[in-house]
Amino acid sequence: MEQIVQQIEAYKQEISAFEPKNADELEQYRIKFLGTKGIVKAIFGEMKQVPNERKKEFGQILNAFKQLAEERYETFAHLKDAAASGTNDIDYTLPAEPHRLGTRHPISIVRNKIIRIFERLGFTIAEGPEIEDDWHNFTALNLPENHPARDMTDTFYINQNPDWLLRTHTSSVQVRAMENSKMPIRIICPGRVYRNETISARAHCFFHQVEGLYIAENVSFADLKQTLYHFVKEMFGENSEVRFRPSYFPFTEPSAEMDVTCFICGGKGCSVCKHTGWVEILGCGMVHPEVLRNCGIDPEKYTGFAFGMGIERITMLKYQIKDLRLFSENDQRFLKQFETAL
Ligand code: PHE
Prior knowledge:
The chain has 342 residues and is an alpha+beta fold.
């Protein structure tokens, strides 16, 4: 037994001095000492030779030796990892994970289509804040405080400042444009607007609009009709007709609501148009002289028209979507259907 213990001592020195420079040397070491045919295993095999009364003592020596051999190996295990990351075990021939393309939201599809039609007519896009002050959303638009038409929309006010509110229409952007722009003005204002409505299939507390404004010298109602007629032909097809019905908005005079031939039944009458052959899609009119004056524009020199439409309404008609809430629920099963639409 003394001989084996001496041998172990020699191995221990060899192990302590072992300094591998690379993964190969480490592997040689592993095979030599820790492999199935390695030295540690072989020496454990010597246990049989040891007389019973010394087995305990020898067992301790063996365990300490094994532990030393293993620890030394672990000290340099990083060499093995470095070598592995250098080798290329990625299989480039495997088929890749499919890249799923997102789909456009139906509101975006319709909004973009509306914008593109007006852009071709020379309208540029104007944007403004969703948190507005009373002046831009109401007062400048000929809706002074206590004006009954303020009740046409239920407004969200902001506690911090009674002058602040969430815009109820993007006409507020038109006011900003009139205050700042040089003549002529030819803009469309797409954006989100807010009204304090109880949420249901037919109403929501926010929705999207595209409003338009054209101000120059000698702009007439005929220009308004021609522009919107062109828009309708582009948007809903050559066979669409329009009709104007007198209406009221405080910021336009005269005012009208415009209907188009029902694009589901082509005017024959169906459930979408409630068997009238027509669907209402926008409000419009000649900008009220008082509004021009409020924005520093001389109504004797300039005139203009404005219009506004709800994107949700047009989208619902177009795709026969029955519930407004679908637009804001982010349900993939709904949203995916519009991939190739329009
Ligand atoms: N601002 C109106 C609305 O939100 C729409 C409109 C715009 C009507 C311009 C006439 C002229 O309902």
